[in-house]
User: Which sequence fits this backbone?
């Protein structure tokens, strides 16, 4: 199985900050990488797919990059509704696997 | 727009079979453009892909679940289902049904999620 790691595991930031979350795969996954946002008690929501494609309806302050084993999700200017947990997920091969999550908290 | 709704018992006894159904509304489960799947999340933990199924019945499962998992589709009811046998307390989780989209028929991602249903395994 492909193992996914994320850093940091938690992050405190302020509204308006630029934030970057990193995801690493245990082997090359090209750009088969998705990002999800989950708020407490809610289902996850896809933000990015194919590493850098923005899902319809997701604000443009979200962006993704990377290829191979190293990926990033960037939020250019944090908004109050962005405080949540973020997961990366590889779709290069089954079993699809998720990273452990990055909890973004208000400073 | 397309919506997914999970249903099934919220409490299952150890060693028994967990059965959940996901009802698709606002679209057809028989669309050739999508797979359907199940994701689970133990309390306070991360997400685990359990498997995906195509409307034809072709399914892919997470090997970690070994032979305990079966997924099926009922196109006449616009539903798909999950069965997990021989459950233990470790199977306690929120279970989400999802639609799996395929961008350019290559890049798979879960683009629609149900609200999730909590299943507790306890005697």
Assistant:
């Amino acid at each position: 199985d492909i193992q996914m790691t994320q850093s940091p595991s938690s992050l405190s930031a302020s509204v308006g900050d630029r934030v970057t979350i990193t995801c690493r795969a245990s082997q090359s996954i090209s750009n088969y990488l998705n990002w999800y946002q989950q708020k407490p008690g809610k289902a996850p929501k896809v933000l990015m797919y194919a590493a850098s494609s923005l899902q319809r309806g997701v604000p443009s302050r979200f962006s993704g990059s990377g290829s191979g084993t190293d990926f990033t999700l960037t939020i250019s200017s944090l908004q109050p509704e962005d405080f949540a947990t973020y997961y990366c997920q590889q779709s290069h091969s089954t079993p699809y696997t998720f990273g452990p999550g990055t909890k973004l908290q208000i400073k | 727009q397309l919506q997914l709704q999970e249903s099934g018992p919220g409490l299952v006894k150890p060693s028994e079979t967990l059965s959940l159904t996901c009802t698709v509304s606002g679209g057809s489960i028989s669309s050739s453009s999508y797979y359907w799947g199940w994701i689970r999340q133990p309390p306070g933990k991360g997400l685990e892909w359990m498997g995906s199924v195509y409307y034809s019945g072709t399914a892919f499962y997470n090997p970690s679940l070994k032979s305990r998992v079966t997924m099926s589709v009922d196109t006449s009811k616009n539903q798909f289902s999950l069965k997990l046998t021989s459950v233990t307390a470790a199977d306690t989780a929120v279970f989400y049904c999802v639609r799996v989209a395929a961008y350019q028929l290559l890049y798979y991602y879960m683009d629609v999620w149900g609200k999730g249903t909590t299943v507790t395994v306890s005697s």
